[in-house]
């Protein structure tokens, strides 16, 4: 099991592949516990593919890597994927809420799927995460009664249910207007300040300038790292 000094992500000479095509090669980087990094790069440069590899939706065919202490090679085809996913919070641009049930039931669905028991315990956890994202009064609402920003907060609450070590976010502010994007970003900063590592793919350079952090950039099949060699942010 990981110790407190174990990074949450460790990739060494990793190959990120889509089918038979190499998207990124020789990817080497480490994300420490509680660290925050952006993931940038042009459309099609490999951000989503890298994130998918990290949550074992794509295999790691060459190189080595661990996420939350789980070795990635061969993991995507094993029955251990759910154990990895319980250590992660995964947030996509399109919210993927279940629109046929309330906010509380969306969260309950995940608690039930991840082995929680005890009605009172589950209600308590749902209240806690909704409070955390500033939606204490939204439990009984249906997703369509919420704004886009509020729906994204529910998605973030859902990702926090199992106290993840790491949040992987793919364009979490992509469909939101600038003010709402800023409030979602502040929420990510708060969550990160409380100790959860965050890797966030984004095209929003304004947010990066406003909340400067380490930047990983997918470019021409490689991953550049601002912590090793600073680069211009412009696309
Ligand atoms: N399901 C798939 N099957 C085959 N190739 C894919 C698949 N998804 C993406 N690709 C290809 O992999 C490459 C990287 O795509 P990826 O979605 O990782 O880029 P991205 O940087 O996340 O782009 P965007 O900013 O548009 O989301 C692209 O060439 C893309 O066409």
Topology:
Elements lengths: L8 E10 L2 E11 L4 E5 L6 H8 L9 E4 L2 E2 L9 H5 L2 E4 L11 H11 L5 H14 L15 H13 L5 E5 L7 H16 L3 E5 L3 H6 L3 E6 L2 E4 L10
Parallel strand pairs: 3-8, 3-9, 6-7, 7-8
Antiparallel strand pairs: 1-2, 1-4, 4-5, 9-10
Helix pairs in contact: 3-4, 4-5
Note down, in words, how this protein is organized.
Helices cover 31% and strands 24% of the residues. The chain is α/β, with parallel strands linked by helices and 235 residues long. It folds into 2 domains: 1-87 and 164-235, Rossmann fold (3-Layer(aba) Sandwich), CATH 3.40.50.300; 95-163, no CATH class. A 6-stranded mixed sheet has the order 6-7-8-3-9-10, sandwiched between helices. Strands 2-1-4-5 form a 4-stranded antiparallel sheet, with helices on one face. α4 crosses α5. The radius of gyration is 18 Å and the shape is globular. The model has no long low-confidence stretch (mean pLDDT 92). Residues 18-19, 23, 41, 43-49, 218 line the site of adenosine-5'-triphosphate. GO terms for molecular function: ATP binding.
